[in-house]
Design goal:
Elements (H helix, E strand, L loop, with lengths): L2 H4 L4 H10 L4 H19 L2 E4 L1 H16 L11 E5 L26 H8 L3 E6 L33 H9 L4 E6 L5 H7 L2 E4 L18 H6 L1 E6 L3 H10 L24 E4 L10 H16 L3 E4 L7 H17 L1 H7 L2 H13 L5 H24 L2 E5 L14 H10 L2 H9 L3 E11 L2 E11 L4 H15 L2 H9 L1
GO molecular function, one term: hydrolase activity
Keywords: Hydrolase
Protein name: Amidase
């Protein structure tokens, strides 16, 4: 197997080869770094390359294995880390100029867990300022471009991660999600992801000087973007390893109990007043048919407590953001991000004071309604966005731009508010007038059953194919 081919391997294929001794961690790492050197200049996805550090670690892994040490489950797998999470000795800038010298004193739990499993961090990926846009651009590092072309945004806030993994820069890409920041870039670039539920992955940045707000703690989760669903089954057990620095982590195994019979899937095209684009409708139908072919029972449903779960949840989050992050955004954010937040606050009127406290309490009502519903339908297949993914900078184009980018994403942030797992998987490649782009669907799951969500994503992928293959054929 030549080095020119190694970057194309999935994480599962890479780990199988390195653990068996068929290829070295150093060879895999060099191939990933070579691919980064070739693809990243046009994308600006990795903004802190770690070539020397990565090769040193890969050699150490090879030496340990040669000395008899048992290789970890991710032995030699190249990964990227988003720049809003602590990695010892590197800046956790979060796309903010004022934070460019905020050097992490230690690794965040997920970075430690990945490296303990044998992964090799090859670079750190771009994010918008404060990780609070569905598009990725900032004054510190500039714009991340989508490998499908400049006609479509790379998404955000984990836009660098999504563009990198789909371009072949690392087999796994870390990201996080408070309102859609794993699923937006997955949909934009054609990656596969699962937003974990609340408490599944230990979270903590050692560089923090204060705790986050309660809704941020309840809605924000860490995760991975991959090129195939199988890689989530390989890597997520590592991601959910416990860490005492997160006192609310839930130490459950990755795999839950097997179903006694066919799993019932609720299916809806409801977009709550937003027009459903024909290409999105075709993607939903294709995913529905794939699940039926795989043995799932798919039934049309009316989703519970929607769209209030989403709209009330995001207004509550905006209330907390305005109170706790607002002064920092005003002081350290660019004119662009301040203008976007002005539109956010206009469109998602923040709950404040007693109203905010009441809505934080009402969150349990919405979560209960969803829990009761998912007791009958363990999975729900639904749109992610009602339209194909938007163009770069759509969210700086006034109220209509913000409405298209975030206002229509009710299915996204609703799942953050109630803390449910939600996967995003591509189900169609559309040849639109502006250019080609993937169309993704969302699969929501029962609490603690991310494994069921990934199984369903894998069933869709098995019938419809991996999006990276079509992308690489175009990239050359």
């Amino acid at each position: 197997m030549g080095n020119t081919e190694l970057w194309r391997l999935t994480a599962t294929e890479t780990a199988t080869a390195t653990r068996a001794g068929d290829v070295t961690a150093e060879a895999v790492t060099r191939a990933a770094l070579d691919r980064m050197a070739a693809a990243n200049p046009a994308l600006n996805a990795v903004v802190d390359p770690l070539d020397a550090e990565a090769l040193e670690r890969a050699r150490a892994l090879d030496a340990a294995r040669a000395g008899g040490a048992a290789p970890g489950p991710l032995h030699g797998v190249p990964v990227t880390i988003k720049i809003n999470v602590d990695q010892k000795g590197h800046a956790t800038s979060n796309g903010v100029v004022a934070l460019k010298d905020l050097i992490a004193p230690d690794d965040a739990p997920l970075v430690k867990n990945l490296q303990d499993a044998g992964a090799v961090v090859i670079g750190r990926t771009n994010t918008p300022e404060f990780s609070f846009r569905a598009d990725t651009d900032n004054p510190l590092f500039g714009r991340t471009h989508n490998p499908w072309g400049d006609h479509v945004s790379a998404g955000g806030s984990s836009g660098g991660a999504g563009a990198a993994v789909m371009a072949g820069i690392g087999a796994l890409a870390h990201g996080n999600d408070i309102g859609g920041s794993l699923r937006f870039p997955a949909a934009a670039n054609g990656a596969v992801t699962v937003k974990p539920g609340l408490g599944r992955i230990a979270a903590w940045n050692p560089s923090q000087t204060a705790e986050r707000g309660m809704l941020a703690q309840a809605m924000s989760v860490q995760g991975l973007l991959t090129r195939c669903a199988e890689d989530l089954h390989l890597s997520m057990p590592t991601m959910i390893a416990p860490d005492p620095r997160d006192p609310f982590h839930v130490p459950l195994p990755w795999r839950g109990e097997a179903s006694d019979g066919p799993i019932r899937v609720g299916f809806t095209r409801d977009t709550f007043g937003f027009d459903l684009h024909p290409e999105v409708a075709l993607a939903l139908d294709a995913a529905r048919d794939a699940l039926r072919d795989a043995g799932y029972t798919v039934e049309e449903i009316d989703p519970p407590a929607m769209p209030e779960t989403g709209s009330d949840g995001y207004r509550a989050l905006m209330g907390e953001v305005k109170a706790l992050m607002g002064p920092d955004i005003r002081a350290n954010g660019s004119a662009t991000i301040n203008a976007i937040f002005d539109e956010y606050f206009d469109q998602f009127t923040p709950f404040e004071g007693t109203d905010l406290l009441r809505m934080m309490a009402r969150r349990s009502h919405y979560a209960r309604e969803w829990s009761l519903f998912l007791d009958r339908y363990p999975l729900v297949l639904c749109p992610f966005l009602p339209q194909p993914f938007f163009a770069p900078d759509r969210d700086v184009q006034g109220a209509e731009g913000v409405r298209e980018v975030l206002g229509s994403a009710i299915w996204s942030y609703a799942m953050n508010f109630v803390g449910l797992p939600a996967g995003c998987v591509p189900a169609r490649l559309s040849e639109l007038s502006a250019g080609p782009q993937p169309i993704s669907v969302q699969i929501v799951g029962r609490r603690w059953r991310e494994d069921l969500v990934v199984d369903a994503c894998a069933a869709v992928e098995q019938r419809l194919g991996r999006m990276c293959d079509a992308l690489w054929a175009r990239m050359g």
